[in-house]
Each structure stands twice: as structure tokens, then as C-alpha cells.
Amino acid sequence: AAPATAARPADGDDGAVSGPAQAVLVFLQEEGASYAVDMQTALGLSGAELDAALVELALAGRITNDRGDALRAILGGEAMPRSGGQRITSSLDAQLATWRAARMPVATVPGRTRPPAERLMRARRDVARRLQRQPASPATRWSGRWSLVHRRGVWGRDVSDEERALHQARQLLHRYGVVTRECLANEEGPWAWPLMVQHLTAMEMRGEVRRGYFVRGLPGVQFALPEAVERLRQDDEEEGEPALVLLNACDPANLYGPAVAAARAAEEGDAALTGLSEESNPTVFARLPSNYVVLQRGVPILLYEHGGDRWKALPSASTGTLRRAVRLCLETLAREGGLCSQPRRVIVRTWNGDPPVGSPIQPLLEGLGFRREPPAMVWDGM
Fold first, then answer.
1. Sequence-separated (6 or more) residues with CB below 8 Å from residue 307
2. Closest Cα to residue 52, out of 86, 21, 77?
3. What band does 102 get if pLDDT is binned at 50, 70 and 90?
4. Residue 27 in contact with residue 43, Cβ under 8 Å?
């Protein structure tokens, strides 16, 4: 069954779907799980129209198929809607096509005339009769039965807003450890923070969570699991250089990205991030799976953007910390199956907006095995 954190669409809410897709939805609501050929016969759709409607609804998460191969074909892009049925032509059509291709002004081609109108009309009537006898193109590509996703057997029982908020609050606690309203910034669907606060407050009274100010820079009330609080205290008390953590930009544990700007950092008094330009601010990046960020004590100190081979480093980070951060990126990017493993090549095209060759970062990169390919620097593990 689907998780209780999701909200079931309201009855009759079919969203922005095409006419054939709407007809398919209504048919499945009335008839239940059905084969494609039955839907085509009942709805009078062509094979191309039915294919397009099924693909549209499947990609929208509205319908499913009891055969995995059908869904894999859609998700893999192998079952794109057909452009239309095969056109039936007559021998006269071929003659007309040849005549049109070589057509010149009648005055310059003596003796060339168009086929008689009577012959054209007779050929068109013959084709029309053949089309009427031709059966509709069957949707034979689909095996298995199609059915709605939003039914009790798949979606699970309906839950109240209060129960859904409880499940969502527990989900966020286990995902982040420390929960604030800001955790909802990248979530989709109905997330009712006031209801969640009520459940979090009840959990605090039962001793399941703690309320306080645990993470600097996160506005509003904060709730945290006890083990998360102890981990934060342990990290704060550890001596020596803090550990580095490498996260993918799309990792749910990554709180930075488009929602965090230098202006907000300035308002919150984070001296390390105040006054940074976009070229040197590692907290400003797109949430793409090809981007990686290195954090120290929860603060981004190095960003790698694969799309442009751009690197952004926190200016206040020490040389030793940056060396460790770059080495951590190299280990992840160049490992087997990594983003830069085929070929084994990591490029620094810009560092804080400037070419690395001739810049203060050049000695550090050369010490890690990068070689110069002006204006860039390249590491290939040699």
C-alpha cells in the first residue's frame, strides 16, 4: 500500500489530462481493471489514441498495469505513442505522387495533363471502402490489465489529516534528526506544519523528542530526536579537525541549495557565509545528481558542479581542509561507477569563478596530482 504520508486525490480530480485520457479514467472507474483491447472497443479510440492516453496516465501516476514489462517499457521510453496507423494507398496515389514530384508549369511540358477528375473520385471511393473494411488498429503492444492506482487495494485506507500529519512528523524526524518548518521547503503535496507541531509537542511531553535551538541558522522552533542531540554534542566536543561529509546535491540530508541564499545567511549572522559572491558561495547550487557538496560541521566548504567543471570553495577554509575536501571528491568521482570514472578524468575549469592556472589554488591542486591544461587543470590518476 502507498505510504500514509501521501494524500489521495479528490474524487473527480483528473488534473490536466487529455480528452482520451479522461475517457480512459472514467472507463476504469466504472469497469475496473481492463485489457487495452476492451477499452479500445468500448471507447472507440484508435490504437494511437489509446497508446497516448495510457502512456500519459501511467507517467502521471494515475494508472498501473499488472505486468511489469509494460511499465518498464513506458519508464524506459520504449513505448512512446505511435504517430498514427499505416496509411492505405492505391496505385493511383503512387502515380499522383510521381506526377507532383516532377510537376512543372503545364506550358513548359507539352502533352502532360492531370489525371481525369472522374478517375480521382473513383479511386478515392475505393480507398474509403477499403478503410471501412479495415479493422481499427489494435493496441496489441500492451499485455496485462490496466487499473487505477488510487484504489484501496493499492493506495491503502484513507487517513485523516491529523493521522497523516503524525506519519509525516515521524518521517521527517527519522530523515533529518532535527526538524523545523524549513524542512518542508522541498516537499510536495499537503504538509500541514501546524498539525505536525501539535504531534511533535505531544511527542516532546512523552519524552520521544526534544525542543530547543540545536542548529544555528535554522529559524523557528526546532524538534530533534534525543540521539540526534547527543550526536551533535559529541561532534561539538570532539577535538582535532572536524570530519568532512560528502553529499550529493539531491540527498535529502542536504539542507542547502536554492532555498539558501547569502542574504539569508547574513540575516542569520553566519560569518562564514556573509558577503560571498555567487562564484565563491558553495551554498548556492542546483539540486542535480551531478553536483556534490562537502560539509564541515554542517557548513558547505566545497562544491563541485559537473556540468561546467566548476568548483566553489569557502574562502575562509584552511588549505589543509580544502586539500582533504578535494581528495574526498576525487575518491568519490573516480571510483568504479563514479561520475568521472569513464574516462578517469576530473577537471577544474574554474575555481571560485577564475581559471585555476596561475591562481593561488594551483599549488594545492598540483600537490594532489592535477596537471595543467591551460586554462584548466586535470586529474586522471596518473
1. 288, 290, 291
2. 21
3. low
4. yes
